[in-house]
Amino acid sequence: MSIPRLIDKYGREHHYLRISVTDRCNLRCIYCMPEEGMEFEPSDKILTFEEIVEVVRVVAGMGIRKIRLTGGEPLVRKNLEQLVAMIACTPGIEDISLTTNGMFLAPKAKALKEAGLTRVNISMDSLHPDRFKLITRGGDVRKVLNSIDACVKAGLCPIKLNVVLMRGLNDDEIADFIRLTLDRDIHVRFIEYMPIGHHDAGWKNLYMPLARVKEVCAEQQWDYEPEAAVQGNGPSENYRLDGALGSFGLIHPVSEHFCQTCNRLRLTADGYIKPCLAWTEQFHVRRVVGDDEAMRQLFLDALGTKPENHEMSHFLKNDVTISHAPTARRMSQIGG
Ligand code: SAM
Ligand code: SF4
Fold first, then answer.
1. From ligand 2's centre to the CA of 108, what distance in Å?
2. 1 falls within a domain
3. Measured between alpha carbons, how far is 249 from 252 in angstroms, rounded to an integer?
4. What is the pLDDT of residue 153?
């Protein structure tokens, strides 16, 4: 019997699994988690490394090639490099990357690289220490900058910086972030603030369409060209300033969704498959670990509920009409 591929009813083939290894985090970024009152899963509800690797083994047989480890903050999970090494041995897996806030990354960069990590995305929403601290509710941008240096030394390249753009909070830093690419081989990715788990007036006030990035380039009279070759870049629309070593990209899920090319599935730390980041559907995989056929069927069932379009932009309108129930889980509970 041939093993089914992960193709949904819209013909999208899925090659990419984002795995959240924990819902906990050392920070409380304003767009991701409330300052207080987050309830975390007890440790016995969190998938073990062995269970995660079992899931990876089964989906690799169905066509998954790329894995991203995320959270919460993945580096609050002890011995993450062991998980990287375990996944790296799984036949079919070609690429393992990590999304991290960078606070604990510098001392781990070398071990992660040696374990088989290919790349890192580091979240950094401001270059100003005070502002960074405010947005992350306690983060230290100097530690993140040290981590970037440590990753360059360890050969974890290309480094991508994730910048969630927010009106009135960091939109005056667009040019500074792009200037970073002039003499460094890094890729700065501006990301629209998404209404995940909350879509109230607070979100609407801070949300800023990424069209603003191109306006800033025009104001600066910068020449830039589309850039195709940014490794593992998924939905990002990429550019390079004339003569720059690095590049920048725009990820605009709200103003211009890219669902038609979505090739990703998510696995939450508490063991649910999430076919779409924005919708409520989730499927508990832990109960089928050890039964490959049941697990494959569960992934196909999950894919069967994947919407054609996440409809996030509808929350910008006053009369919200959406065809599905949006998720009540926050980004840190799903794995961004
Ligand atoms: N803690 C790690 C970090 O911050 O990089 C990994 C988990 S975090 C949930 C993954 C990514 O999601 C980060 O780049 C973060 O900036 C982004 N993110 C979180 N909430 C978001 C939101 N509401 N809209 C857009 N991006 C968001
Ligand atoms: Fe933590 Fe990352 Fe969410 Fe910030 S974005 S609170 S660092 S999980």
1. 18
2. no
3. 10
4. 96
